Amino acid sequence: MPQAKRDLFLHGSIPRALLTLSVPIILANILQAGYQLTDTYWVGRLGADAVAAVSVSTPVTFLVVALGSGLGMAGTTLTAQYIGAGRADKVNQVAAQTLLLVVVISAFLGALGFIFAPQFLALIGVSAEVYTGALAYMRTSFVGVAFVFAFFMMQSLMRGVGQTRIPLIIIAVTVVLNMGLDPLLIFGVGPLPGLGVMGAALATLMTQGLAAALGLWVFWRGQHGIHLHRALFKPDFSYIKKACALGLPGSIELSTRSLGVMIMSFLAASFGTLAIASYGIGANILQVITIPALGLSMSVSTLVGQNMGAGFTQRAEHIARLGAIYGFVALTLIGALTFWQASALVAFFVPDDAAVIAEGATFIRIMALAWGGIGVQLCVVAAFRASGNMLNAMVLALVSQWLVQFPIAYVLSKHTDLGIAGVWWSFPVTNVLVALVAFAWFSHGGWKRTRITDEDVQVQTVVDNALKDEGGLPRY
């Protein structure tokens, strides 16, 4: 990493450092969301059944991806802390070993997902009209899971060393290509037959494969902070053990969040095609709206990791607090604007279905004004992960999904007169409550005791510190 950038991240203005990292990450995330938004836009022209097919497939695919992503989080955390500690010799080894792990695991999980896709859909209970398209979309998505893992890991490692421009360029190229392929494969052109929902999945598969190949090529050239070569991919079982110990809580956390999304999809699907289509559109819009806060949280993660590695714990805490404040303000303002334009946003995706527009707009308006809580959660969780306290992030995910959101959604939708609106109301209630819990736990400060790059510190210390932190959750 260039000395000027290192000085900025470890000693310079925190707002400037956050801005320097955040802008390219936010732009990259906007483009990354373009994959799914482009699919949703063109699939929406096929009708509500096609939108529902994509909506029920996506959470299942995300769940499988999440199972292996904890290892990627461990690699990113170690990379950032080694950079902060001045241990550049360790960065290449961590990058190679982490890529090796995630590719092997993703290929295995993708194969399982492909085989058991019909059972997933049967469990969800999708209608006959939705089943065929959902199966085609889901299976094609599982084929590309290894590509998704590989490029996700490359992006994360690049962020760990403070390099955000190269991933932005790669994503820009592949998203533009996806935008061109989608209508061709979905509707067909000339002798090329239209493939419907499966065409959207194929377009994404092809472009994500290209993104993974370009990312690997950049690493092989070694001109942007990480330099890979064949010898580094020889399995290092001491690192694998360390990565697994760190990554397991991260995998549980991400899997919990993804499973929670899938369970909420099940609940919405129990109210019919209109409900699941409205949920899918609202969830896609939420994904885009939270991109600024997500980019900010990724910047917080990089800066907290590097400063923790350098031993600057107070600066790391200040970074996370500023990030949480910025995230709260930004998403609250965006939520107010979205509340005003909810119907127009839904109509952009499904222009010819008045019922979906009305229900989707209701969903968005109910949750929009509490989006500031998401900004707080994302930055606090980023600080926990970057310091190596994966267990803290895991506990927050478990509390959020299983003790707060799903029980509230189920009771309000099934045992009151609200119906599907009960599912919608579970979102703002959860965002506010979990943000308060997360910030209180962060303010307690136990997470600052962890440094996972010290060679004489065992990884178990990370878990021990989290458990010692006043029994896990803050007291009131």
UniProtKB/TrEMBL annotation:
It is a multi-pass membrane protein. The keyword Ribosomal protein does not apply. It comes from Gilvimarinus xylanilyticus. NCBIfam families: matE. It is found in: Cell inner membrane. Keywords: Cell membrane, Membrane, Transmembrane, Transmembrane helix, Transport. GO terms for cellular component: plasma membrane. The lineage of its organism: Bacteria, Pseudomonadati, Pseudomonadota, Gammaproteobacteria, Cellvibrionales. Signal peptide: none annotated. GO terms for molecular function: antiporter activity; xenobiotic transmembrane transporter activity. Its main location: membrane. CDD domains: MATE_like_12 (cd13142). InterPro entries: MATE_fam (IPR002528), MdtK-like (IPR048279), Membrane_Transporter-Flippase (IPR052031). The chain crosses the membrane at residues 57-78, 99-124, 136-154, 166-189, 195-220, 259-279, 285-304, 325-350, 362-384, 391-412, 418-442. This is MATE family efflux transporter.
